[in-house]
Structure formats: structure tokens, C-alpha cells
């Protein structure tokens, strides 16, 4: 009888691993701004797209001119200087995995956020 229970546990572990692999395989990758990349007037880019937690946003931009900062809703609305400890990306080819809920990103270079270099992406 003990061997039978161990086999059931192995099947359960195998099913859990397969489910996890399926969920990971279904994560989508989105290029922010499509061909234009992370740029001015990108704020409407998420419109009409469906995002899930675990999807990846790829921010492509000129790293000498821009950055990407994950901010709060208030920071997004105000285009405020990022709070101390905010996650700042500066590579020019950043990959960010979406968390469930609304994820906010701005460019922190003065005037860029105000010129539409910001996005709010809601992931189910």
C-alpha cells in the first residue's frame, strides 16, 4: 500500500510541473511602442491589448536619451521624480515581467513623461 501512495504523489508532482510549464509557456512578450519602441506619445500603446501577469514588456530605446522607471499610480499621474528605491532601467533593451494589477512606467528624463513617454498596463 505504501508504494501505491508514493506513485500518486509522483503523478501529482508531475502534473504540477506540467501545469507550471504550460503557464510559463503562455507568457506573451510585447515590444512597447511596437516598431517605434519606447518613445514620446507611447502612452496610448496599451489600448486594445490584453495583458496577463507574467507577460513580458520589452522596452527598446536610446539609453543615452531615455530610461524606464516603474512608479506608483501617483507618480504616473504626476509625472513625478521617482521615489527613492524605485526600479530604474537604463539598458535600452529592458525586459520587465508584469505583476497582476496595473503596472506604471515613465521616462524620468525631465519633460519626457509630460510628452507622453509613460504607460499604464493592467495585467489580469
Automatic annotation (TrEMBL):
PANTHER family: BLUE COPPER PROTEIN, PUTATIVE, EXPRESSED-RELATED. Residues 1-27 form the signal peptide. SUPFAM superfamilies: Cupredoxins. GO terms for molecular function: electron transfer activity; metal ion binding. Pfam families: Cu_bind_like. It comes from the Eukaryota. The keyword Signal applies. Residues 28-124 form the Phytocyanin domain. It comes from Triticum urartu. GO terms for cellular component: plasma membrane. Keywords: Copper, Disulfide bond, Metal-binding, Signal. This is Plantacyanin. InterPro entries: BlueCu_1_BS, Cupredoxin, Phytocyanin-like, Phytocyanin_dom, Plantacyanin. The gene is LOC125530086.
